[in-house]
Amino acid sequence: MTTSRRLADRKVEKFEKNITKRGFVPETTAKKGKDYPVGPVLLGFFVFVVIGSSLFQIIRTATSGGMA
């Protein structure tokens, strides 16, 4: 058996081992879906700023007489 043939057989064994492992994901790496990327305080502040600025714009437009 030549060296290249032995290396080829070794690679085939390695790849066949990987094929049997395909699809098995451990529980720790899978995301649970319960965590938010931002905290509740930051989310509340963002909502406050967005809704507050839109209300402020509506009131300002109404008091200035429409489209100005």
From TrEMBL:
Keywords: Endoplasmic reticulum, Membrane, Transmembrane, Transmembrane helix. GO terms for cellular component: endoplasmic reticulum membrane. The keyword Membrane applies. The keyword Endoplasmic reticulum applies. InterPro entries: ER_stress-assoc (IPR010580). The chain crosses the membrane at residues 41-59. It is found in: Endoplasmic reticulum membrane. It is a single-pass membrane protein. Belongs to the RAMP4 family. This is Stress-associated endoplasmic reticulum protein. The lineage of its organism: Eukaryota, Viridiplantae, Streptophyta, Embryophyta, Tracheophyta.
